[in-house]
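Q: Given only this backbone (117 positions), what sequence would you predict?
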């Protein structure tokens, strides 16, 4: 009878042992996931910082250029505004203005390029 009791206790001990190994495996997976998340968070933060710095520098360069060359900056902004107006106007409705938008935008961009050379 003692042998039968030992047999009946062995499966219970094995069942108790299995969840421990599963929970240990789950903990290991969670730890690796947390580590990967931390590394990804650091990488994204680094890229964000570098991008923000580059954008800030470019913005400062554009401000300095427009202060030194206000006439070129105004003509460039005017050309971009007119070109976008033609493009948006031509894309919103299909009429004969679409035929004129592309040549006008090309002419304005050529004029703007001449100022930058």
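A: Predicted residues:
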């Amino acid at each position: 009878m003692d042998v039968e009791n030992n047999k009946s206790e062995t499966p219970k001990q094995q069942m108790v042992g299995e969840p421990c190994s599963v929970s240990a495996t789950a903990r290991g997976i969670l730890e690796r996931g947390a580590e990967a998340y931390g590394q990804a968070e650091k990488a994204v933060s680094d890229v964000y910082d570098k991008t923000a710095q580059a954008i800030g520098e470019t913005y400062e360069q554009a401000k300095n250029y427009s202060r030194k060359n206000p006439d070129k900056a105004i003509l460039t902004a005017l050309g971009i505004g007119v070109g976008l107006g033609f493009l948006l106007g031509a894309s919103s409705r299909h009429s004969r203005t679409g035929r004129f938008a592309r040549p006008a935008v090309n002419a304005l961009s050529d004029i703007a390029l001449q100022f930058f050379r």
